[in-house]
Write a structure and sequence with these properties.
Mean pLDDT: 79
Oligomer: single chain
CATH architecture of the largest domain: 4-Layer Sandwich
Strand order of the largest sheet: 1-10-9-6-7
Number of helices: 12
CATH class of the largest domain: Alpha Beta
Radius of gyration: 30 Å
Low-confidence stretches: 243-314
Strand content: 15-25%
CATH topology of the largest domain: Phosphatase 2c, domain 1
């Protein structure tokens, strides 16, 4: 059984545009990227509408995952088109949409436009979606090579988008997924600036998903940042059978590929430390004992005095039972505290920037901490309003999604506080 072990997402306006028309959604098992079509009015409104539909989750009805994903795409198309037809200021607005769903053993996607889905598996980087664009159609017809398409002046012209027509045709696919797979959803603000080979190198060589995501955005901006840039990264792990009732389902990063940071779940660590049963080792034979012993009815003769003096009697170290009990009690309390600290998150500050921490905001003697850095944002504490700053300094315990969503709203300026 697969689940999302870790995910990271970031959107950036780039260097050439004042408004960010990209939107994303990242809440396991659903992930999506929507790109308001460049040149269309209120493209940012269209992408937000698409993501609002994804937030509702898969429709509760019979049907395959692909069918239900396509239904979400159709609903997003209807909502964007309805608003564009009733609001003159938003007439003609449109958006791309690529949405992925992580199942127990597979990954499914529905897709319209030129936002993309990639997979990194065992060091191999592969694009899983095909662009609905003019140059992609020319490539399929053999009129352009992929290299020529990357440099074509009309590469941003798309042939399908949400909101342009009453009905929209979406592509959908399902692939078997594996433990360690890393997936990248992105808008064309990344792929139009950074070659796929470079994207693969960054993703495969980064120390963690946050490192990879930030480096991808930086690379697109360094190449010119002519469009909005959005990246959503998530990594899968195989957890076997579903956890029994009462066990935590919180998770942390696990190995995905060379260069990706390796961690283990707290449950796995606890399982590895649990003994499988007592093991009784055979008592070693005495160094002086002969290979075979012959029993004799008469009492054994006493060895000569020098030999007796040469023998050293082995003494066993006896530990008081009470001390052993106390030790295991303290160990159990320490393990319980550590385990609990791995299932919660809080927002704080690191080097002057808003940071998500994993664990509890407590320091132990000898310089030990019950927390570790999960994600460092680019938001300086000094730029926050007093109410927003209090959200950072209060160190309130949160779920991972809650903490990351709070920081995301700070990064995008969406956070409103009284």
């Amino acid at each position: 059984m697969l689940r999302v072990a870790d995910h990271f997402e970031r959107t950036d306006p780039g260097r050439a545009r004042r408004i960010n028309e990209d939107s994303f959604f990242a809440r396991a098992p659903l992930f999506a990227v929507a790109d308001g079509v460049g040149g269309a009015q209120a493209g940012e409104v269209a992408s937000h509408l698409a993501v609002e539909v994804i937030e509702q989750g898969l429709p509760e009805r019979a049907g395959s995952i692909e069918e239900r994903l396509r239904e979400l795409v159709s609903e997003a198309n209807a909502r964007i088109r309805a608003l564009s037809r009733t609001d003159e200021q938003r007439a003609g607005m449109a958006s791309t949409l690529t949405v992925a769903y992580v199942g127990e053993h597979e990954l499914s996607v529905a897709h319209v436009g030129d936002s993309r889905l990639y997979r990194l598996r065992d060091g191999t980087f592969e694009r899983l979606t095909e662009d609905h664009s003019l140059v992609e159609e020319l490539v399929r017809q053999g009129k352009l090579t992929p290299q020529e398409a990357d440099e074509h002046p009309q590469r941003s012209i798309i042939t399908r988008a949400l909101g342009l027509e009453a009905g929209v045709e979406s592509d959908s696919h399902t692939w078997p997924a594996r433990d360690g797979d890393v997936y990248l959803l992105c808008s064309d603000g990344l792929t139009s600036m950074v070659a796929e080979e470079q994207v693969a190198g960054i993703l495969g060589g980064a120390g963690s998903l946050p490192d990879a995501g930030r480096e991808l955005v930086d690379a697109a901006n360094a190449a010119g940042g002519r469009d909005n840039i959005t990246v959503v990264l998530f990594r899968l792990e195989d957890v076997g059978a579903p956890a029994p009732s009462g066990e935590t389902t919180e998770h942390v990063a696990v190995p995905a590929s060379p260069g990706i940071e390796q961690e283990r779940t707290a449950a796995a660590v606890a399982g590895a430390a649990r003994p499988t049963g007592p093991a009784v080792a055979p008592e070693p034979a005495s160094a002086e004992a002969p290979a075979t012993r012959r029993r004799h009815p008469r009492a054994p003769r006493r060895p000569p005095e020098p030999a007796r003096r040469g023998r050293r009697r082995r003494r066993r170290l006896r530990v008081p039972t009470g001390l052993l009990v106390a030790f295991f009690i303290v160990l159990a309390i320490a393990l319980s505290a550590w385990y609990a600290s791995q299932t919660v998150y809080f927002v704080g500050a690191k080097d002057g920037f808003v940071t998500v921490y994993r664990g509890m905001p407590y320091d132990l003697p000898a310089g030990l901490h019950l927390y570790s850095t999960n994600y460092v944002s680019g938001v300086p504490i000094g730029e926050l309003s007093p109410p927003q700053r209090r959200l950072v300094t209060e160190h309130k315990l949160r779920s991972r999604d809650d903490a990351q969503e709070l920081v995301r709203q700070m990064e995008t300026g969406e956070l409103s506080t009284p």
